[in-house]
Amino acid sequence: DQQVKQNSPSLSVQEGRISILNCDYTNSMFDYFLWYKKYPAEGPTFLISISSIKDKNEDGRFTVFLNKSAKHLSLHIVPSQPGDSAVYFCAARGAQKLVFGQGTRLTINP
Amino acid sequence: DTAVSQTPKYLVTQMGNDKSIKCEQNLGHDTMYWYKQDSKKFLKIMFSYNNKELIINETVPNRFSPKSPDKAHLNLHINSLELGDSAVYFCASSPTGTSTDTQYFGPGTRLTVL
């Protein structure tokens, strides 16, 4: 009964191209969504977030899109850089807690 | 300076033992959390404390007992360890625990139960 799912365990993208990471959720009560980035042997670090009242939030090379009717959000990274290679977790907030997906491993190829 | 630190980083122990994982944050945050990353890689909340008071207590076996001596520390004690407890445990903190807070994570503790 995972409420947040990232169905692609891995993604490989050429440097300079766009990376698109996807996330689906089931609970319509979630009101805030976040993306975290994780390097090996480190904890997740906050990347970008979006409130449920918005459909887009942009921060430099990172843009998060929210489609509430489809219960889907995506993270776009453009242009992708080698340092973006990491595991990306999406998370949704409800009832004072975060519910995380299982992560997508992004590899940026030179 | 490490914002959220955990000790130990790795913990290998036998079934049935009791062990503790320590967490400290130097960010001045009011709220601290424990998460478990299971074999399927999902990060799941276990507990959260706000100013030493338990706020969230998910469906976790009562062999797991969090202890918060002060708001900068949240330790996790596990009794009678089982094979299924093997996982990576992450501590996190956030300023106030409100819905738009950013959580800051420690580096994780990889627990292996043999």
Please provide a brief summary of the model:
The complex is a heterodimer of chains A (110) and B (114). Chain A is mostly beta strands and 110 residues long.
Show the helix and strand layout.
The complex is a heterodimer of chains A (110) and B (114).
Chain A: E1 4-5, E2 10-14, E3 19-25, E4 32-38, E5 45-51, E6 56-59, E7 62-67, E8 72-77, E9 86-94, E10 97-100, E11 104-109
Parallel strand pairs in A: 2-11
Antiparallel strand pairs in A: 1-3, 3-8, 4-5, 4-9, 6-7, 7-8, 9-10, 9-11
Chain B: E1 4-7, E2 10-13, E3 19-25, E4 31-37, E5 43-50, E6 53-57, E7 64-70, E8 73-78, E9 87-94, E10 104-105, E11 109-113
Parallel strand pairs in B: 2-11
Antiparallel strand pairs in B: 1-3, 3-8, 4-5, 4-9, 5-6, 7-8, 9-10, 9-11
Q: What percent of the residues of chain A sit in helical stretches (DSSP H or I)?
A: under 10%
Order of helices and strands of chain B, N to C? EEEEEEEEEEE
Structural class of chain B: mainly beta
- So how many helices of chain A? 0
Shape of chain A: globular
Any idea what the radius of gyration of chain B is?
A: 13 Å
Number of beta-strand segments of chain A: 11
H/E order of the elements of chain A?
A: EEEEEEEEEEE
Per DSSP, the total helix count of chain B is 0
Percent range of helical residues of chain B = under 10%
- Integer average pLDDT of chain B: 91
Number of strands of chain B: 11
Overview of the structural elements:
The complex is a heterodimer of chains A (110) and B (114). In chain A, strands 2, 4, 5, 9, 10 and 11 form a 6-stranded mixed beta sheet that branches. In chain A, strands 1-3-8-7-6 form a 5-stranded antiparallel beta sheet, with no helix packed on it. In chain A, 0% of the residues lie in helices and 57% in strands. Chain A is mainly β and 110 residues long. Chain A has strands at 4-5, 10-14, 19-25, 32-38, 45-51, 56-59, 62-67, 72-77, 86-94, 97-100, 104-109. Chain A is built from no helices and 11 strands. The N and C termini of chain A lie far apart (38 Å). Chain B is mostly beta strands. Helix content of chain B is 0%, strand content 55%. Chain B is built from no helices and 11 strands. In chain B, the strands form 2 sheets. In chain B, strands 2, 4, 5, 6, 9, 10 and 11 form a 7-stranded mixed beta sheet that branches. Chain B has a 4-stranded antiparallel beta sheet with strand order 1-3-8-7, with no helix packed on it. Chain B is globular. The model of chain B has no long low-confidence stretch (mean pLDDT 91).
